[in-house]
Design a protein that fits this description.
Shape: globular
Largest sheet: none
Order of helices and strands: HHHHHHHH
Number of helices: 8
Oligomer: single chain
Length: 202
């Protein structure tokens, strides 16, 4: 029987990192090895790999609030590990993207450079503060503001990215946008539900 200790946060992050490195290897292998097409594939596939991990972390609280118990509560308890796994996977994507740009002269758009760069700063800040010490030092309110804003920024970047693929790859964009929209709707519903008693009292 596998113990709960086997699924500690470092173990979860390590497994996610190994998996996304496997995705990198697959991207290069698909296009014959170390070349521009392989680098582009590695960058694309790693972004797709990290996307559902982000959605899990971003929607964990809303799911557990609306339907407590079962796998939703387990996911909420493991949200820190899930979020850090996303950060690890997405920084592998960042490395794959840098290789495509710096080694194989891929031309990223200004949107990718500035929007993506700012989002990576937020991802790094969220990862570095995903611990109890940071919550105490920042204060729960400031910590929550950082992670709420960071999660929203990441969601917006993914939304813009998949909207840009609607014409070319609807089979990829539509499910991704549906997931993001559903997660956002759940979060808005929870927010409205929490504010409802306050409006009734006032």
């Amino acid at each position: 029987m596998t113990s709960a200790r086997s699924f500690s946060t470092p173990t979860t992050i390590g497994l996610a990192t190994l998996a996304v490195l496997g995705v990198v290897a697959y991207g290069y292998a698909e296009y014959g090895g170390w070349n521009a097409d392989g680098a582009g594939a590695a960058a694309r596939y790693t972004a797709r790999f990290s996307f559902p991990i982000f959605v899990l972390a971003w929607s964990a609280s809303a799911l557990a609030t609306l339907w407590p118990g079962g796998w939703r509560s387990v996911m909420l308890r493991r949200r820190r590990a899930i979020g850090l796994s996303f950060a690890a996977a997405h920084f592998v994507h960042f490395a794959a993207l840098l290789i495509a740009v710096c080694v194989f002269a891929a031309q990223p758009s200004a949107k990718t450079i500035y929007g993506g760069g700012f989002t990576y700063v937020l991802i790094a800040a969220m990862a570095l503060t995903s611990n109890d010490w940071s919550v105490r030092k920042l204060g729960p309110r400031n910590w929550k503001m950082l992670h709420t804003f960071g999660g929203l920024a990441i969601a917006i970047v993914f939304t813009v990215s998949y909207l840009g693929r609607l014409d070319e790859k609807p089979w990829l964009a539509i499910p991704a946008l549906t997931l993001l929209g559903s997660a956002a709707a759940l979060k808005v519903f929870v927010w409205m539900k929490k504010r409802a008693p306050q409006r009734a009292v006032s």
